[in-house]
Design goal:
This protein is 56% helix and 9% strand. The protein is of the alpha/beta class and 587 residues long. Strand 7, helix 19 and strand 8 form a beta-alpha-beta unit.
């Protein structure tokens, strides 16, 4: 319904665009026509008519530009809704997948397929800015530090304002991606310097410039004397032009982002929110240390004024009659001095709003299947999950599972045949724990989890450049996990078929000893294995429990129910699958 409404609006704006182009062309041609027709009239009449037609032309130019901006805005809104329809079909190609953030050495992101074309990131990423994207990445990888309940409350309120969130997103153009907080921070580090002599020159130039011009009009000065006077005024301007350019030109690149930030701030100020977190954001933007909206509006005007001087002729006249370069440096120095401690904070709040909208969008698209998690901040370390699913598995194919560990249970040993769902289940736990700690809803009916750090070892590769074998790389990864536990971190560990790079006897003994070490370090976690001998450790340690996935083979058919069960897997299917694929001798 949104798309249907927007298509009609876009069609009207396209028609208006053509009309404004014709009117603008007509007004432009009217200027020389007016001068030609009134050429023999009194000079005052010619000048007045010329100015009038010029004003009409500029009016049509402004209206055409406004229509162009409105058209671009509504096209972005339409794209947002079309992209969302594709996302409901699990097509996330319209959204940045964060492949620049792929890091094989991260505690869990590589194993959990967080980034990349088929990752979690493009599924939830609705950010438009570089800052928003980095903020989303940071909160997914490191979790959220402030109370999660405040984030949940704000997320739920935004569901009541879906159209508003789309307007917030559409206010950002593609150019918004090019500039980020680091660029502003770099500019702020180079303090604008306007020496005291500029304070004097900003008044001397216009006084001398206008006085000499009037004197010329009254024949007190001839043309040569006028030009010589203006040349003297321009000498210090030209002498310092390189330094002036270094101070003023960098902020021209900020214009489109500042325009968008102003639109976002305006939207935030106009919207009445009840959630504490959203009220806090508004207070920080509009109440603390002045009004961020007014400050950015001043900044926007400064950027536009500085852009005028890029036209050489206009720049010369502005410096003669207004001391423009001096005035701009003085005003920019004053603005920077007043707001340099606030600018990054304001931009950070806007990027936090982008992350909130990502969480809201995920909740909205999966409303019936997801809930808000409970992350324990106390010493409780029991885990209780009901109807857990993986967000990337289509709803019509999704098989949910329950999972729990009591206070005294530390590790689950998970067995089962190939393709039965073990790895998907492991990633379901890991991905949802990541989402939970980031403040996002999770794909489960109930998700109660201690505030543990997630560490995984599921996918290890050798490195020829570092002369690292597969087995050595895996040992390094396991050492990385143990280091975290030995530092005293509360960790939840997900392991999938560890020590794959050695023989079966070594693997059996090594896996058992490693698992016992993790128990001694009071870790919690889950390990998937095909090694059934590892399940015997549960007879020795009450902190270990056995769970399994099963398969059913009937004649030439194999089936899976993808449901986790208590106990140890009895059916394996490798030989059957090899035979089905024609990879074994059937004689």
């Amino acid at each position: 319904s949104q798309i249907e409404k927007l298509v009609q609006i876009i069609s009207k704006l396209e028609n208006k665009a053509r009309q404004w182009i014709l009117l603008r062309l007509f007004a432009f041609l009217l200027i020389p026509a007016t001068i030609y027709l009134l050429f023999e009239s009194a000079p005052l009449v010619v000048i007045s008519a010329s100015i009038a037609t010029l004003m009409i032309f500029l009016f049509f130019v402004r209206k055409s530009a406004e229509n162009k901006d409105a058209l671009a805005f509504h096209r972005r809104l339409e794209k947002i809704n079309r992209d969302e329809l594709l996302a409901l079909q699990y097509d996330f190609t319209a959204f940045d997948n964060g492949d620049d953030f792929i890091n094989q050495k991260h505690a869990f992101s590589y194993d959990m397929d967080v980034f990349g074309p088929k990752g979690i990131f493009p599924m939830i990423n609705r950010t438009q800015s570089k800052d928003g994207q980095n903020k989303l990445k940071d909160v997914l990888l490191s979790g959220r530090k402030e109370p999660l309940e405040n984030f949940h409350q704000a997320t739920e309120e935004l569901i009541q304002h879906v159209e508003w969130t789309q307007t917030f997103r559409a206010s950002m153009s593609d150019a918004y991606q090019k500039i980020g907080q680091k660029d502003y921070a770099k500019w702020l580090e180079k303090n604008i310097q306007a020496p005291k002599w500029m304070q004097i020159m900003q008044w001397i130039n216009p006084i001398v410039g206008w006085t000499s011009f009037i004197a010329y009009q009254l024949n007190f000065l001839n043309g040569t004397q006028l030009l010589f006077t203006w040349f003297l005024l321009l000498i210090p301007v030209l002498y310092h032009v390189k330094r002036t350019n270094l101070q003023l030109n960098p902020i021209i690149d900020f214009q489109q982002q500042v325009d968008a930030a102003l639109q976002q701030m305006t939207l935030l100020k106009q919207q009445d929110f009840q959630a504490d977190l959203l009220k806090t954001y508004k207070n920080q933007l509009f109440e603390e240390r002045g009004n961020g909206l007014n400050a950015l509006f001043q900044f926007q005007k400064l950027i536009k004024k500085i852009a005028y001087r890029h036209n050489i002729l206009v720049g010369v006249l502005l410096n003669i009659f207004f001391g423009w370069d001096y005035r701009m440096q003085i005003q920019l120095q004053a603005w920077q001095k007043q707001f340099q401690n606030d600018l990054i904070k304001w931009l950070d709040i806007l990027s936090e709003m982008e992350v909130l909208i990502c969480a809201m969008n995920f909740r909205y698209n999966n409303y019936a299947q997801c809930t808000y998690p409970k992350i324990y901040s106390d010493e409780s370390n029991s885990i209780q999950i009901e109807k857990l699913g993986h967000p990337l598995v289509p709803i019509h194919k999704l098989v949910s599972n329950n999972y729990s560990l009591t206070e005294n249970q530390h590790f689950t040993i998970l067995t089962g045949p190939n393709m039965a769902g073990k790895s998907t289940f492991l990633r379901s736990i890991g991905v949802n724990l990541m989402l939970a700690k980031a403040g996002f809803p999770v794909l489960a009916k109930t998700f109660h989890f201690p505030n543990y750090q997630l560490y995984t070892s599921m996918r290890t590769t050798d490195d020829l450049a570092d002369e690292s074998s597969y087995f050595h790389a895996e040992l390094v990864r396991l050492r990385f996990i143990v280091n975290a536990a030995e530092r005293g971190e509360k960790v939840f560990i997900i392991l999938d078929e560890i020590l794959k790079g050695t023989n079966s006897k070594d693997k059996e003994e090594g896996s058992a000893k490693f698992l016992e070490k993790l128990l001694n370090l009071h870790c919690k976690g889950i390990i998937a294995t095909h090694d059934l001998s590892l399940t015997k450790l549960a007879d020795k340690h009450n902190a270990l429990i056995n769970r399994y996935f099963d398969t059913k083979i009937e004649g030439d058919e194999i089936s899976f129910d993808y449901k986790i069960k208590d106990g140890i897997a009895q059916n394996m299917n490798a030989s059957f699958l090899l035979q089905k694929m024609g990879l074994t001798n059937t004689n």
